[in-house]
Design goal:
By secondary structure, the chain is mainly alpha-helical. The chain has 10 helices and no strands. Helix 1 packs parallel to helix 3. About 3% of the residues have low confidence.
């Protein structure tokens, strides 16, 4: 949306411009006069920042991850990383697809597993969990004719807590489809 468009238009060629943006982003989701955010408000805000980090980092995943970790800190790192990997695996607008076309792996389980395997801990779990749509819908909206169960898919998220996190995220999305 407009948030990403702003960051897509700013190239942050100068390191001092990037550092100023990072300093500003560290406080944008926090309480200030006129805004007393709930935990949900903060989480939503840091998730949106995660989406924008792919633009700020110019689709350099390592750089984008470092920015997300720096801005969100430990408390909101998980939702920031989810926004980043959601932006990668679930691009919505054409400019989103163009940004990631040379970064995102093919929509095949082995390729995604190898791609996510370059990350550790929460970054791996977030990468794998957000790849579900890429694998289930083959990145183009057509339903994959060999879907894996949520349980099997999430078991590959790594640890027991990462698998639980994966199931929680997938059920949240799947439940939103039921009307």
């Amino acid at each position: 949306g407009a948030f990403q468009a702003h960051f897509g238009d700013n190239s942050f060629e100068r390191e001092e411009d990037l550092q100023q943006m990072v300093a500003d982003m560290r406080t944008v989701c926090e309480e200030r006069p006129g805004w007393q955010p709930t935990g949900l408000d903060k989480g939503t805000c840091y998730h949106a920042i995660g989406h924008s980090m792919l633009y700020v980092g110019k689709a350099d995943i390592a750089r984008s991850l470092a920015l997300c970790r720096d801005i969100a800190g430990d408390a909101y790192k998980k939702v920031c990383l989810d926004g980043l990997f959601m932006q990668l695996f679930q691009p919505v607008a054409e400019e989103d697809r163009l940004l990631v076309e040379n970064v995102v792996p093919p929509p095949q389980e082995r390729a995604v597993r190898e791609f996510c395997g370059q990350f550790n801990g929460q970054a791996y779990a977030s990468c794998w969990t957000n790849a579900w749509a890429w694998l289930f819908f083959e990145g183009d909206g057509s339903v994959n004719d060999t879907p894996v169960s949520v349980e099997k898919f999430c078991a590959a998220a790594g640890t027991v807590s990462s698998a639980a996190y994966c199931r929680e995220n997938l059920f949240y999305v799947i439940a939103s489809w039921v009307q």
